[in-house]
From TrEMBL:
SUPFAM superfamilies linked to this entry: Glyceraldehyde-3-phosphate dehydrogenase-like, C-terminal domain, NAD(P)-binding Rossmann-fold domains
Origin: domain of life: Eukaryota
Protein name as it appears in the record: D-xylose 1-dehydrogenase (NADP(+), D-xylono-1,5-lactone-forming)
Cited Pfam families: GFO_IDH_MocA (PF01408)
Domain Gfo/Idh/MocA-like oxidoreductase N-terminal: 13-138
Protein keywords: Oxidoreductase
Molecular function GO terms recorded: D-xylose 1-dehydrogenase (NADP+) activity; nucleotide binding
EC annotation from Swiss-Prot or TrEMBL: 1.1.1.179
Amino acid sequence: MSSPSCSTLPTLHWGVIGTGLAASWFATDLNLPRANAQARHVIQAIGSSSIEKGETFAKTHLPGVDVTIYNTYEQVYADTKVDIIYIATPATFHKKNCLDAIAAGKHVLCEKPFTITAQESRDVIAAAKAKGVFLMEGMKIFEDKVIGDVNRVLCDLSMYMGQLDQIRSRTAPSENPAIPPGIMLEAGVYPVTWGLLALEKQPGCGEERPQILAASKLCNGVDISTSMIMHYPASGQQAVLSMSMETKLASNFCRIEGTKGHIDVEGLVTSHPESFTIFHKSERPESGIPFAFNKAGQKFKFDQEGWGFHYEADAVALDIAAGRQENAIMPCSETIRVMEIVDEVRRQVGVRFPQDDQ
Ligand SMILES: NC(=O)C1=CN([C@@H]2O[C@H](COP(=O)(O)OP(=O)(O)OC[C@H]3O[C@@H](n4cnc5c(N)ncnc54)[C@H](OP(=O)(O)O)[C@@H]3O)[C@@H](O)[C@H]2O)C=CC1
Ligand SMILES: O=C1OC[C@@H](O)[C@H](O)[C@H]1O
């Protein structure tokens, strides 16, 4: 199928809020020349804490692009040329940023973790519904099932996080709300999503809710290392998930095990799978050995450019062009379901935030 010509593609004008790491990857990806783009993306405006920071961001990540720089986020929400806001601020601010953008009538794509609690997510989703705008959590991921019935998933997202020293030295989360509110929120949403995608036939569609078992290493009120199990009592399926700020994930960060073999998923981080290797179980045990080995694995590489934000942005553009308020693959109900699991893990390990009392 030939790709649609540029003039027939839906066009979205983006306002980007925050100029950190996620925003830099997003801007770079949306500016990539792509033969198979499904939409045209214009980064119309950048909202930053200072004009100088915004200009440096634009010069570095959007060279040659004519973009308006504002030194308040409110001016981006008020810009009539902007259709949609991409929120790339620390998670503590997502609820306010989303509500402000929605109140201004803008569509919203908000980075993971969507908010701090499931209740905050519900509040934001209700506001978007009432206003009639599109809303989606930025969650880039993939899935594949060619190994029979999936019965177990192992997934880790561990990163040496620069903020660990700040967490160690602060006395309360309110002291610096921009520091990630624990590894479960900052990273855990990915392993949880991998577990749900791999174990459930159609994630979130009336299937059994998994039991959650979790334990964490805490530091000054937040979890810096968390291990958890999502267990489905009826089928016995399990996701064994881990995340830590004190080590780095292995390159094969996810293993999906089925009745006929397993899949290793490899990549730099859980949000950026680069390849997967399928291992099929041998038909019969090796002679003299009472258990079966796997046959040699077959590796498949993803033919992808950039960080993958452009695929996410294309999906948003197609939804908005079709008049939809949600995305079918990453619906708001899935955001709430994952946030409820995160809430439950935090409850079990004893991490509480002021947002839990609001
Ligand atoms: N999908 C993905 O692959 C990734 C997602 N993320 C997610 O994106 C979000 C942002 O993370 P990341 O880009 O790493 O964060 P950074 O710290 O690199 O950047 C956050 C930006 O938010 C703005 N900001 C607003 N208020 C504050 C504040 N009080 N303190 C500090 N910065 C503030 C700043 O921009 P300014 O001063 O210009 O306003 C800052 O540059 C998080 O939710 C994170 O989980 C992060 C990395 C990758
Ligand atoms: O979302 C994420 O994925 C990639 C990581 O490098 C990043 O810090 C994390 O927040």
